[in-house]
Amino acid sequence: MADTIIFQSLPPRPAPVRTEGLVPWIRSNLFGSVPSAIATLIIGGVLFYFLPKLLNWAVFTATVVPNVDACRADGAGACWGVIAEKYRLILFGRYPFEEQWRPLVATLLLIALIVASCTRAFWSKWLAVLWVIVLAVYFVVMAGGVLGLSAVTTDRWGGLPLTIMLTTLSMVLAFPLALLVALGRRSSLPAIRSFCTVYVELVRGVPLISVLFMASFMFPLFMPQGVSIDVLIRALAGITLFTAAYLAEVIRGGLQALPKGQSEAAASLGLSYWQTQRKIILPQALAMVVPGIMNSFISMFKDTSLVSIVSMYELTGALGLALNSDANWRPFKLEGYIFIVAIYFCFCFAMSRYSLWIEKQTNKSRLR
């Protein structure tokens, strides 16, 4: 007699836990463990206590009209009217008031160039030509003296255009210099290796403010009689040399992270030293240190505020110039600095997000 087969249904399994959406994100990130839940409750309690007061000061009782008496009235909150009153002086510094369309146009062109350089569709040999053209137009529009534009000396440049220009040119000049220094520190030639090491250690051993002081006040003392270099060029050179030293160490870390077999394999294929660096070593090393490179760029963007020591009024310096020259608006520095913080945050956040995009692009090859 054949065995009887009895089929027995299995009990239903629970539905899979949802891992996407707001509730799953809150559960995993804010209440994923007991310490995380305690920290979330503490931070939430602090926000619950202070956030209504902050909103009341910054939004509900704030004054947005440029009226000093309204800002000083009893019960008045934040005085955003100081921004409405002084924004042109904050953004453009001491540039002639009637000519401030020129730094606006020049800055928009420079920002558009940076955005184009960060877009894959524009990555071609013509991008270098575009950089030369836009930078030439930038300095022609800012300095004037040609095409019917009135001449404006560099000591009157300031505000956001000066900050963006110093950051952009410092990035462009410091990166190739940092590459050469990083390669020089790993060179087999003792003279080159020692020179690059002394440069890095010497520059990293002093603060940026001292480098700017030396470039602006001490360097002219060594120039021949009657020869003078513009303070903008001296400040730009100081920031570039300072940034290149830090950036070189970041790149050197990426070079040291690569196994020696990479260069040995290139040598076995008959590639020269520079072919090996350009086609094999540097692409991999730079992909490894994208966060460090971007961190150096963000730090440099913020460090441009130190040029105020050489009487160049960039964004933060222009804010002090705008408020210190007018006693009526001087008590509302906090609102002015919040405005400056918002500008710095927008640019730094944009650079950070672009760094994440670059990391995702470079990691595709490792996921294959």
Outline the structure in words:
This protein has 368 residues and is an all-alpha fold. The chain has a domain at 97-151. The protein has 15 helices and no strands. Helix 8 (190-204) packs across helix 10 (231-257) and helix 14 packs antiparallel against helix 15. The longest helix has 31 residues, at 333-363. The chain is flat. The N and C termini lie far apart (58 Å). The model has no long low-confidence stretch (mean pLDDT 86).
From the structure above, extract its key features.
368 residues, single chain, flat
Short synopsis of the structure:
By secondary structure, the protein is an all-alpha fold. 67% of the residues lie in helices and 0% in strands.
Oligomer category: single chain
Helix fraction? 55-70%
Overall geometry comes to: flat
Total number of helices: 15
**How many DSSP E strands?**
0
User: Termini, distance in Å?
Assistant: 58 Å
Radius of gyration based on Cα positions: 28 Å
Largest sheet: none
The residue ranges in which pLDDT falls below 50 over 5 or more consecutive positions are none
Helix-strand sequence = HHHHHHHHHHHHHHH
Which structural class fits the helix and strand makeup? mainly alpha
Mean pLDDT: 86
